[in-house]
Amino acid sequence: MLRRWLIGGLTIGLLASVLLAKPGMVTNRQGDTFKGDVTEDDNFVYINSPGGQLKLDKRNVEKIEYEKTVDEQYELRHSKLDPKDVRGRIDLAEWANQNQRADLAVKALTEARNIDPMNKEAGKALDAAQAQLELDEASKTKHPGTQPTTEPAKGGTPTAPTAPPVVVVPLDRRLLNNDEINIIRQREMKTDDPKIKVKFENAVVKKFLAVGDRDAAEFGKLSPEDQAIEILTKGDPSMAKDVRILTDPQPLVEFKTKIYPLISSGCAASACHGGSKAGNLQFFPGEGTSAVYTNFFITQTYSTTIDGVKYQLMDRDVPKHSLVLQFGLPTSMGTPPHPKVPNYRPRFKNDTDPAYTEIFDWLSNSLLLPQPDYGIKVAVKLPATQPAAAPAAPPK
User: Fold this and answer.
1) What is d(CA 340, CA 3) in angstroms, rounded to the nearest whole number?
2) 3-state DSSP call for residue 39?
3) pTM for this entry
4) What one-character-per-residue DSSP string does 89-131 give?
5) What CATH number labels 2-66?
């Protein structure tokens, strides 16, 4: 391995002029790729990445591809749209949301609504993007500034600057980004899922096989899905980011097509936990990837304590204890029952209701055990200021 690196002309070196560095990817003549902050001079290319600082002889460089900023990528994608392309602008907004740019999503969706004012999907997505933009703006005011240095009295001894007070900043409530969506896909996929598609980046397979005495020939016989699971479960944790799951695992396919529609017509309706009076549990509107995965994340991580007992919104270990089921039953049947709110209407008639059994079966048979720890730091609760308003009546 050391010999290969030397032949490739790659040596450890100091990073040149970090002020001029731009994110990019360098490919050498052997086909290896290296991503990081890139700078170059007449003779060398310097790459600063989490793995260290690298120096590559330009004579061994095949190509350098600099990444465009999110704004540049947005403008490029936007320039390719037909002036009347509403679908393209909705998709562009979804891409902007995944890159945590609600401002660009609002821009694209405003154009979509101007083209087709009656488009419901664009309208819902615009409402969600505007709400996210407001949250982004509000979060900027949460971080305290540093305290100024204390000026010495005239002729006196300078005093040390006062340390800023320790302030716990609450987590932002926002849509998940692409990397967080990828984490959920990694945690929820199964080895027997035939629809999973995997992409390996930054020579992660080579890095995985280079550690220990792993058998490259045997590894090569595995399916891409099994290779991904091998890397995720047995490789260094830093490798996970380069294992990209491109498609929805089956549990997420079912959540999007079967489970969330049942929830959104009841407890996640705009008059209940999908609107402005959602209390301390609120879902995001929209059907895009970011909204679907964020709402899935909320259902899997939200919990609350009632009469000293902790309940999960969706309990994989004991599905019937899930609040999404118990709160959806008539108050005389729910354990615990839904809190008393005006005009409350149960989502299910009883525990044999088709919608109840659909969710129960999904919790019991589709999701992995134990429930994964995603390690994602996003708020799923809002300050509890009021109970949720009455849910919309279930469809007949």
Assistant:
1) 71
2) strand
3) 0.61
4) HHHHHHHHHHTT-HHHHHHHHHHHHHH-TT-HHHHHHHHHHHH
5) 2.30.30
Q: Is 271 helix (H, G, I), strand (E, B) or coil?
A: coil
Structure letter (DSSP) for residue 382 = -
Identical topology for domains 2-66 and 70-139: no
Confidence grade of residue 212 (pLDDT, cut at 50, 70, 90) = confident
Query: Nearest Cα to 106, choosing from 84, 79, 80, 136?
Result: 136
Domain borders along the chain are 2-66, 70-139, 197-245, 250-365
Beta-carbon neighbour count of residue 304 at 10 Å?
Answer: 15
Sequence-distant (≥ 6) Cβ neighbours of residue 371 within 8 angstroms: 300, 316, 317
Q: How many residues does the chain have?
A: 396
Question: pLDDT digit string (tens) for 338-348?
Answer: 888 777 788 89
Residues 240 and 186 sit within 8 Å (Cβ to Cβ): yes
Nearest CA among 162, 120, 121, 125 for reference residue 145: 162
Burial category of 230 from C-beta neighbours within 10 Å (exposed 0-12, middle 13-18, buried 19 and up): middle
Give the CA distances from residue 245 to residues 101, 137, 155, 227, 302, in Å, rounded to whole numbers and listed in that order.
22, 31, 65, 12, 25
Non-local CB neighbours of 11 within 8 Å, separated by 6+ positions: 5, 54, 55
Look at the domain 70-139 and name its fold. 1.25.40
User: Which one, of 202, 185, 324, 218, lies nearest residue 263 by Cα?
Assistant: 324
